[in-house]
Write a structure and sequence with these properties.
One of its GO terms (biological process) is recombinational repair. The protein is α/β, with parallel strands linked by helices. The protein has 27 helices and 28 strands.
Length: 740
């Protein structure tokens, strides 16, 4: 049984630690979970929550309270316990009964759990109090104990009586998975994220909207790894790794809401990079917090901040500049720098590193892969000991960083040369078994076929000129949710190795692919590619397709995103597309062009976006246009942009581009899908990888300047370029080698 220790490590409760360890051992082989003081079912005062809540298909809901003081008597009203330390507390039996009623009331709202006709729950609820400092003989002499509604367990009875109590309350038959899932979601409060309640159920899907609704008609319940991260507060730094769509933002939002509810005195920072996620993050926090805490979050104690900020929207940088009397640099001042955000933090630290004072009790960093070291170092300096900094890193979101950066590279070094956070700091667990480093293998957003295709195209696995970059360790592929079928033994791959990977269905929780296949349709239709002769033709076709999706297939316009890779012309392209959609009676928005960057989604409106602004967002239908730029991009940045665009989709992905470049990319896609769900390729040579990794790791601004010079020479000084190459036989030899 899974043991979720929650905030146990913060409270130094010896009795709870020992009873929790006993329960974990006693129920090791059983299914379900043991939570320390969770779920709270909306009870605001944590002292009114039982010490342990067990949710199990075999034992139902079990509430176990541990009294960590010696009981000497019960007052005549039966409402107060008198303790050996001279204090009195409210009866834990009454507290347990009140909590029992809260659990029952919440479960009665779930049709899968409660039979309204017979007014009966399908799940048992039982309760017990463990008196940690009282023996059986002592308890039997205390008047009023015999009247308790809860089972009474003395410290000298724990070993036998807890197990006996559980067995006595075993379910007549094991609860079905969907019933237990509904119970857990209702009690944890994650039903707030339950897509199945957003719209009426569909029995026989016909339209695309039908299929999407059926695929989402599953109760949202945190999986085991997600729960261990979200519901527990670490005693120090913690890293979360996973693909886009594995639930990292939901997990961080839940962790923020839970910590804010349980420790309202904590000052919490939720830091992120994509401006359009402001509303989404605050909504996710509020969706959980408000029903559970019965009030709005205190946004002064729980700060949701973009890393930069500006005149109209506060951010961490603008805030610390104001606090320390430093004039903040504006985007226009650093425009063109490859790491503008990192540069401004670096300059700020050069002036104020020694002045920064820790003010936050917990810092949560989403989209960590978008941040460079100065931002992490600032977070470190702003966080109080024991440095509860939780950073969520999107694997594969940037081609320049396929390899996970070490904490030393992120958080910087102290004056004595020691790392602020070392790799060793992420090894092992915190008290309560809270892990320090998590990997999320399950993708909830993308259909499996979309994700496999996106990985294959991003790495160039079918690119005629060769693979662009490669993960060279078995464990790295497994962290992405793949099984390595070949080589069968090697942990590190070498040039020439034949690599065979498969993404199993169990790691892709999006059920749309199976629904389509089960209805007799081709699941490969989830990824579609079309070529056009010119941009007007492409945009017109996209507008017509959107009209069909909205009118015939019933897809809501705000569940459609159009991402353009042709960033140089996308403002004009989007303006044209917007005008066509307006003529069709379909609204659309252009975040960062016309609407505010933070206004990414608006009810009833299609979103037209660049890949950068689309990051962190998702929709049921995604169009990726302008793909002809991918194959001719010698910097490989467009492969990354393509991956970002494709992985925004929960359902269908429509790719398009102009003939030539788009045709070459379509050939790569067709080749990848011919072996789906398997990816098979030969591990590239060290020289190929070395050369391409140099390009990938170059400064974006430097690359842009050099590309411009070369492009100009190819147009106006072709003869000079040819002569220069002729006079450099070594370079010509290398060029010849790359073609062979």
């Amino acid at each position: 049984m899974e043991y979720v220790a929650g905030s146990l490590a913060l409270e130094n409760n010896v009795a709870a630690n020992q009873i929790g360890a006993f329960l974990s051992r006693a129920l090791e082989g059983a299914a379900g979970q043991i939570g320390y003081k969770q779920p709270t079912v909306g009870v605001r005062d944590k002292t009114d929550v039982p010490t342990f809540i067990i949710m199990s298909p075999d034992f139902g809901i079990v509430l176990i309270d541990v009294l960590d003081e010696k009981l000497t008597s019960i007052d005549d009203s039966g409402e107060f316990f008198n303790l050996a330390n001279g204090t009195s507390i409210y009866s834990r039996d009454i507290v347990l009964d009140n909590f029992f009623q809260e659990v029952e009331n919440r479960l009665k709202k779930e049709s899968k759990v409660y039979d309204r006709k017979s007014r009966r729950l399908y799940i048992n609820i039982s309760r017990a109090i463990v008196f940690y400092h009282n023996a059986k003989a002592e308890l039997s002499s205390i008047s009023g104990v015999g009247d308790f509604l809860s089972q009474v367990i003395a410290i000298d009875e724990v070993n036998d009586h807890i197990v006996g109590f559980l067995e006595a309350n075993r379910q007549p038959t094991q609860l079905p998975t969907d019933v237990l899932d509904a119970c857990i979601a209702a009690l944890e409060g994650t039903a707030a994220y339950d897509w199945s309640k957003k719209a009426p159920p569909v029995s026989s899907p016909v339209t695309k909207d039908d299929f999407i609704r059926v695929s989402m008609n599953t109760t949202f319940k945190l999986d085991q790894t997600q729960r261990r991260i979200a519901m527990q507060i670490p005693g120090g730094p913690q890293r979360i790794r996973g693909l886009a769509g594995t639930g990292k933002t939901v997990i961080l939002s839940l962790k923020a809401a839970l910590t804010h509810k349980d420790f309202p005195e904590f000052r919490i920072l939720f830091l992120f990079n994509t401006q359009s996620m402001y509303r989404e993050i605050r909504r996710k926090i509020s969706d959980y917090y408000i029903p559970e805490a019965k009030q709005n979050p205190n946004w002064e104690r729980l700060e949701v901040l973009h890393a930069w900020g500006g005149r109209n929207q506060p951010g961490l940088y603008s805030q610390v500049c104001a606090n320390y009397g430093y004039r903040p640099e504006t985007f226009s001042e650093v425009r063109g720098a490859s790491d503008a955000l990192g540069d401004i933090y670096k300059r700020f630290l050069s002036k104020h590193r020694l002045n920064l004072r820790p003010v936050y009790d917990l810092i949560l960093i989403d989209e960590a892969q978008d941040f460079s070291s100065p931002i992490f170092e600032t977070a470190f300096l702003l966080c109080k000991d024991p440095k509860r900094i939780v950073w969520a890193y999107d694997e594969f979101q940037t081609m320049t960083d396929l390899r996970m950066p070490a904490p030393e590279d992120l958080f910087g070094y102290a004056e004595d040369g020691s790392p602020n956070i070392s790799s060793e700091a992420l090894e092992g667990t915190y008290p309560g078994g809270i892990e320090k480093d998590f990997i999320l293998p399950n993708s909830y957003r993308n259909p499996r076929i979309s994700l496999v295709a996106a990985h294959g195209l991003a790495l160039g696995l079918r690119r005629p000129q060769g693979i662009i970059d490669m993960l060279d360790h078995r464990r790295d592929w497994e962290a992405l949710g793949y099984e390595v079928q070949q080589p069968t033994v090697k942990s590190t791959f070498e040039p020439g190795d034949e690599i065979v990977l498969e993404r199993p269905e169990r790691n892709s929780k999006n059920t749309l692919e199976n629904l389509i296949r089960g209805s007799g349709f081709d699941d490969k239709s989830l990824v579609e590619f079309n070529e056009y002769q010119n941009r007007v033709e492409e945009i017109t076709a996209i507008a017509q397709k959107i009209q069909g999706l909205v009118v015939q297939d019933g897809v809501s316009a705000d569940e459609i995103i159009v991402v353009s890779l042709a960033v140089g012309s996308c403002k004009n392209d989007f303006s044209f597309l917007r005008s066509l959609l307006t003529e069709m009676g379909i609204r659309s928005i252009m975040p960062g062009f016309i609407e505010a960057p933070s206004q990414f989604k608006e009810p009833g409106a299609v979103t037209l976006s660049t890949p950068f602004r689309a990051k962190g967002n998702e929709a049921n239908i995604v169009f990726v246009m302008g793909t002809e730029v991918v194959v001719g991009d010698a910097t490989f940045r467009m492969r990354n942009a393509l991956f970002v665009g494709m992985t925004r989709s929960r359902g269908w992905t429509y790719m398009s581009g102009l003939s030539g470049g788009a045709g070459a990319l379509k050939a790569e896609l067709d080749s990848l899908l011919s072996s789906y769900p398997v990816l098979q390729f030969a591990y590239p040579s060290e020289e190929e990888l070395r050369r391409r990794r140099i390009i990938l790791n170059k400064d974006d601004g430097d690359i842009a300047k050099k590309q411009a010079i070369l492009s100009e020479m190819m147009v106006s000084d072709e003869e000079l370029l040819i002569e220069m190459l002729k006079n450099n036989p070594d370079l010509l030899k290398k060029l010849g080698a790359t073609q062979s």
